[in-house]
Amino acid sequence: MPDTDNDDKTPLPRRLFGGDAESPPAPLPAASRAGWWRRLSQGLSRSSQALAAGLTDIFSKRRLDRRTLQDLEDALIRADLGLPAASRIAEDVGRGRFDKDVDVGEVKEILAADIEGSLAPVAKPLEIDAARRPFVILVVGVNGSGKTTTIGKLAAKFSRQGKRVALVAGDTFRAAAIEQLRIWSERLGCEVFARESGSDAAGLAYDALDAARQRGTDILIMDTAGRLQNRTELMGELEKIVRVMKKLDAEAPHAVLLVLDATVGQNALSQVELFGRSAGVTGLVMTKLDGTARGGILVAIAEKFKLPIHFIGVGEGADDLEPFAARDFARAIVGLDP
Questions:
Q1: Torsion, CA 287, CA 146, CA 169, CA 129, rounded to 10
Q2: What b-and-e string marks burial along 300-334, b requiring 16 or more CB atoms within 10 Å of the CB?
Q3: Residues 6+ apart with CB under 8 A from 273
C-alpha cells in the first residue's frame, strides 16, 4: 500500500452489519409526488410566511412607487436572496406598474418566476456513472450540517434502485457518527467500512476504496469529519483524503457533495467558497430548510457559484431528502400552489 501517512493498520471488517452483500435490499416504497409537495411546502413554511408577511405589509398600504420597490428589495435581502436577485426582482415588479395598485398575489407570481429562473440552471440530478465502479461520493461540510444523516438517506435511495452501496465512516473524530453509519448499514443491508474513533481518515479512505473495487461495489459514499471552513489544518486533512484516493483512481472522488445547513444563512456562502478550494466541490445538498425563515439563501448561492444543487432536505425522515426541482422550490418558498 502506498504511503498515506497513516500508522493505523487496523484491518477493515468485510462487513459489520446487514445481510448478504451480494443481494441488494428489497426496494422500499417511494414517496408520492403529492406527499413530497406537502412536506416541501410545510418545510418551507417559515420562509414563505416571513416573505408573505413582508409582501403584505409593503403592498397593502400604498401604490407602487420607488419607496415601495426599495422596501421590497430590503425584504428580499432580509430573506437572504442576496442583493443581485433582490434588485432584479424589484425591478421586474416595478416594470410597467408605477403609481398603480399591485396585488400581493401578482407579486408572488413574479417572485416565483424569478426564483425559478435563477435556480433552473443549477437544478441537476446527481448522475452516477456506471462505468466508474465504484462511483465514489465524498461528503463534506461543517459540524452539524447533517452530513451523516444525508449519507444514510442517499444510501437508501441508491439501494432502492438496486445499487450495491458501501459506506465509509470517515468522521473518525466522532464515535457517534461511526455508530450512526453502522445503524444505517444495518437498516439497509449495505456494507460499512469503519475503524476506531481517532483513526486516520485518509488511510481508511484508501483501504475502503481498494476493498470496494475488489468486491464490485457500485457506489461508495464516504463521510468526513465536520470541520470549520476557516481551520486550515483540518481543511488540509480533507485535501489529503482526496489525494490518497487518487493513488487508486485518478478520477476519484467522482462527486464531492457539500452539505449545507440552511439555518446558517449568509455563512453558507463562505462555506461553498472555501470547501470548493480544498475539496473540489461538484454539487450541493441543502438541509434543514424546515428550521429557518432564510431559505432564500439557496438563490444567493446559485447565483454566485453556479454549482449544481442535487438534493434538498426538509426533515429527518428517509423520504425528506429529494432531488432538487427549481419550480417546486420557487413556488413553495413564496407560498403558492404547485
A1: 10
A2: bbbbebebbbbbbbbbeebbbbbebbbebbbbbbb
A3: 305
Looking at the predicted structure, is the pLDDT value of residue 123 above 50?
yes
Sequence-ordered strand ranges (E) for the chain: 135-140, 165-168, 191-193, 219-222, 255-261, 283-287, 309-313, 321-323
Distance separating alpha carbons of residues 207 and 12, to the nearest angstrom: 7
* The residue to which cell 459540524 is assigned: 143
- pLDDT band of 99, cuts 50, 70, 90: confident
Contact of 266 with 81, CB cutoff 8 Å: no
0.85 exceeded by the pTM?
yes
Q: Identify the burial level of 182 via C-beta atoms within 10 angstroms of its C-beta, where 0-12 means exposed, 13-18 middle and 19 or more buried.
A: middle
SS (H, E, C) 236-271: HHHHHHHHHHHHHCCCCCCEEEEEEEHHHCCHHHHH
Share of the chain above pLDDT 90, in %: 69
Average pLDDT over residues 82-102: 90
Please tell me the distance from the alpha carbon of residue 297 to that of residue 140, in angstroms, as a whole number. 19
Nearest-Å Rg of the Cα atoms of the chain is 22
Pairing type for strands 283-287 and 135-140 reads unpaired
What angle do helix axes 147-160 and 175-188 make, rounded to 10 degrees? 10
Q: What is the pLDDT of residues 151-163, one digit of tens each?
A: 999 999 999 999 9
- Whole-angstrom distance, CA of residue 259 vs CA of residue 147: 6
Residue type, 20: D
Task: Enter the DSSP assignment of 16.
Answer: S
CA-to-CA separations, 191 to 32, 129, 167, in angstroms, rounded: 28, 20, 6
Instruction: Measure the CA–CA gap between 159 and 132, rounded to whole angstroms.
Output: 17
> What is the per-residue pLDDT for 249?
97
| Residue pLDDT, tens place only, 201-240 | 999 999 999 999 999 999 999 999 886 655 677 778 888 9
